[in-house]
Write a structure and sequence with these properties.
InterPro entries: COQ7_proteobact, Ferritin-like, Ferritin-like_SF, Ubq_synth_Coq7. With 208 residues, the chain is mainly alpha-helical. The chain is 76% helix and 0% strand.
Length: 208
């Protein structure tokens, strides 16, 4: 059963995720690389792609926090919290690249956060095997999304590529961890709904 204290903690986490600078214990991938000379169109494209990735990490934070809130077993809660911690690092890295590219974060982040928190709490309430299965499928779809961004990023933007590559490696590991903890394979219709929802979010965030 969710306690009032838990909701207060989650509200505080939400404010920090949306408003406070994200923290990281790992250095920014590609930090030692020189900033590429890019035209304005290339910079706008790279900035928009990193904005999408940043919003994706906002969603990931909320999803994992919601899932941990309603997860049954303590070890599942811990695994979700560890994944959320790495997503905080991803937030920091994406925001750093957005700033370097002269871009901006999405205006829709509060809406993405709220919706994702509710979806995560619902997934957790369905039971640990479905909760972990949802996590694994989310991360699989994120990996495919990041692969697409690696194709679309300007070839010269090695700094953004380094960030996306490390994010991809982390997300793949999260999926593996979820399956190792007993995650169930989701039904095909659920996967399709997740895919279509993510596509809508990324297309909107690319512009707003």
């Amino acid at each position: 059963m969710i306690k009032i204290d838990d909701l207060i903690v989650e509200f505080d986490k939400g404010l920090r995720t949306l408003l406070a600078p994200a923290r990281t214990s790992r250095p920014l991938p590609g930090k030692s690389l020189a900033e590429a000379e890019m035209g304005e169109e290339e910079k706008r494209l790279a900035g928009a792609l990193m904005r999408v990735n940043h919003s994706g990490e906002i969603c990931a934070q909320a999803l994992y926090q919601g899932q941990a809130l309603t997860a049954r077993r303590p070890e599942i809660q811990q695994a979700l919290k560890e994944a959320a911690s790495e997503e905080t690092e991803h937030l920091n890295w994406c925001e750093s690249r957005i700033n370097d590219l002269g871009g901006r974060k999405s205006l829709l982040n509060p809406a993405w956060y709220t919706g994702s928190l509710a979806i995560g709490a619902l997934a957790g309430a369905l039971g640990d095997k479905w909760n972990l299965g949802f996590l694994a499928e989310t991360e699989r779809q994120v990996v495919r999304h990041l692969d697409d961004h690696l194709q679309r990023l300007p070839a010269s933007d090695e700094k953004s590529r380094a960030v996306v590559e490390q994010m991809k490696e982390d997300e793949a590991r999260h999926a593996t961890t979820a399956l190792e903890h007993g995650g169930a394979e989701l039904p095909a219709p659920v996967k399709l709904v997740m895919k279509l929802s993510a596509r809508m979010m990324t297309a909107t965030t690319f512009r707003v």
